[in-house]
Structures are given as structure tokens and as C-alpha cells.
Amino acid sequence: MSGYEGFVDAASRLGVAVLVAGAAGMLLCVVALSAYTILRGRNTGRRGQVVTDHRWLFPFTSRSHQGGRAAVVSKRKILIEKDTEISDESLVDGTATVGERLMYFGVIAFMTCFYLVFVGIGLWMFKDFPLGLMFPVVVGFWFFGNMRTFWRDRQRAEARVAARRAGLPDPTAALLAEGESQ
């Protein structure tokens, strides 16, 4: 085997391993996150009710994209619903419980494993279809965009907690007001 063919063959074998590891990681994350939510989430009391929602047909559409048309009306029955909220401030200042921290990092681990599945598919497909390397690039925009948002939210929470401890006003309030005026 020549150098390039050997490289492509090794990348394909590595892709299968990354794909299997990513899929197994996703499965473990889903099981762990579901178990924690069922065991520790607060019951909202809406179990068994039929709820009528006014939703958009697609999650990323808005009234401006629809030409002012109303949202789609849908009915759904709530089989089970658990609710809890984990704030960035509680993660930063140490008031979040161990379970809340594990839930936060479990979501990040799930998203990372999801991205690794596409990296594995891209490497696996590289042997027969070199454009398969575009799979992780396209999904990478979504993944790294979310990671950047998590990081920025954490930095803002750290600034708010530091300002609160120092007795200063909230430094992110000016940023939020500036963003709303634009």
C-alpha cells in the first residue's frame, strides 16, 4: 500500500472506532440524563392532560419569515413531564448540587458524542467518498456555535457573581440593554 492509500485506510478504520465510541457515549448520556430527570425532576402536575399549543410548524421560523401568518395549532397529550432549571450562576458560585452539575456536563458530553458520530462517519466515508469529510464540518458549525454560547454564558455568569460578591452593579445589564436597542 502506498502512503496515501495507507493513510486513507487508517482514517477509515479510525472513523469506525470513533463512530462506535460516539454512539456508545450518546447512548450512555441519554440513559443517565433520562434516569436523573425521572428520579430528580420536579413534577409539573400536567401529567395526562391534553394541551393545545400555538407553535410554529418548524422551530426556526418566525412571524417575519411566515409573512405574518399565525402559528400552527397542535394538540398533544402529556405523558410525563419533569421540570427543573439549572442556572449558570448556581454553577459558578457553587450552589448547584452535584446532580445539577452532572446534568450540565452530561448535556455537553451528549453534544460532544453527537459531534463525534459525524466525525466518525466522515472519516469512515473518506475511503470511498472524500467529500464525506464535510459531514463533521457542517455539524461542527452547530456544535462549536453551541459550545461558544455555553462559554459566553458562563463568562457572563462569572462576571455577575464577581460583581455581586464585590457589591458592584450587574456588568451584563448594560450589554443586554445595548443588544435590545439594536
Question: Describe it for me?
Answer:
The protein has helices at residues 3-40, 88-93, 98-125, 134-166, 172-181, and strands spanning 42-43, 50-55, 72-77, 82-83. By secondary structure, it is mostly helical. A two-stranded antiparallel ribbon has the order 1-4. It has a two-stranded antiparallel sheet with strand order 2-3. The longest helix is centred in the first third of the chain and has 38 residues, at 3-40. The N and C termini lie far apart (59 Å).
The tally of strands reads 4
Q: Which residue ranges are poorly predicted, with pLDDT under 50 across at least 5 consecutive positions?
A: none
Counting H and I runs of at least 4 residues, what is the number of helices?
5
Strand content: 5-15%
**Order of helix and strand elements from N to C terminus:** HEEEEHHHH
N→C terminal distance: 59 Å
Gyration radius from CA atoms, angstroms:
22 Å
Biggest sheet, spatial arrangement of strands: 1-4
Q: Level of helix content? A: 55-70%
Describe the sheet with the most strands.
2 strands, antiparallel
Task: List the topology elements.
Layout: H1 3-40, E1 42-43, E2 50-55, E3 72-77, E4 82-83, H2 88-93, H3 98-125, H4 134-166, H5 172-181
Antiparallel strand pairs: 1-4, 2-3
Helix pairs in contact: 1-3, 3-4
